[in-house]
Amino acid sequence: MTKVKKYTPPVRIPKWVKIVAKVLEWVSPALAVRFAIQLFTTPIRFKTPKRELKMAAESRQERVYINAILKTINVYRLGNSNKKVLLVHGWSGRGTQLSAIAHNFVERGFETISFDAPAHGKSSGKTSDMTEFIASIMQLEQQFGPFEYAVGHSLGAMATLNSIKNGLDIKKAVIIGSGDIIEDIMLGFTTQLGMKIATGRLMMAQFEKKFGQTVNSYSAYIAAQSVYIPVLVFHDENDRDVHISAAHHIHIHLPNGELVITQGQGHRKILGNKEVIRKINDFLV
């Protein structure tokens, strides 16, 4: 069995934030946990890059209220077809982030449905988490589905696997640069803040109290065990955001998975790679 490497991504955290974290940890562990959770659940809204403007301009956009989380998201519909594909971006991403993949599907006669997750892009809210990605996916299936396929990137890949586990009915799925073990992600984050492991575990306990189950129950490899449809797993060997061991670990837990390792594409450039898109086309034939 592939051994999973505990990996801390290169989070760029300002020095003053680390100082505040350490002071709060010394003053009150409870305040430190609240501070860490606020940072952990607040995505960065980046400006839409030029390569995504075409998709943003050509898409039919609408606001959709997600009943389960009481939040409104912005939805993008590109193309016009009865054959539909769901696209799910990652943390601090946007509904247009998979634009190259979306245009490829439209050229092949599909319509793509993508969205800005809560607190991302044009959607409302300041904080979010994977459960809100999942809630959005499940309602979009009801409102715009059925979907033929789904493609997810990073946290969106984890949310896609969890959504299939929860009943998302699709024929095949593609996941790209997926994270894996929630505990490693959370403890890695608090470590980057300069906090103690104990504070990270207290943060995990707060999430578990909120959701009524262990945070690791949302780990990609656990969801993968319940995903019986064919799944194509992409990961770059030099992905600096998510270690490649995550892809191997997810792959060995998929009943019907295929793993493709790329070189020199990193965590985001891979989304526009022509060879990756070609392999997606071949897989979905």
Write the layout of secondary structure elements.
Layout: H1 15-27, H2 29-40, H3 53-58, E1 60-66, E2 71-78, E3 84-88, H4 99-107, E4 111-116, H5 130-144, E5 149-153, H6 155-165, E6 172-176, H7 182-192, H8 197-211, H9 220-224, E7 231-236, H10 245-253, E8 257-262, H11 274-283
Parallel strand pairs: 3-4, 3-5, 5-6, 6-7, 7-8
Antiparallel strand pairs: 1-2, 2-4
Task: Give a description of the structure.
With 285 residues, the protein is an alpha/beta fold. It has eleven helices and eight strands. It has helices spanning 15-27, 29-40, 53-58, 99-107, 130-144, 155-165, 182-192, 197-211, 220-224, 245-253, 274-283; strands spanning 60-66, 71-78, 84-88, 111-116, 149-153, 172-176, 231-236, 257-262. The chain has an eight-stranded mixed β-sheet with strand order 1-2-4-3-5-6-7-8, sandwiched between helices. Helix 1 (15-27) runs antiparallel to helix 2 (29-40) and helix 2 packs across helix 8. The two termini are 31 Å apart. 45% of the residues are buried. Mean pLDDT is 93; it is low at 1-9.
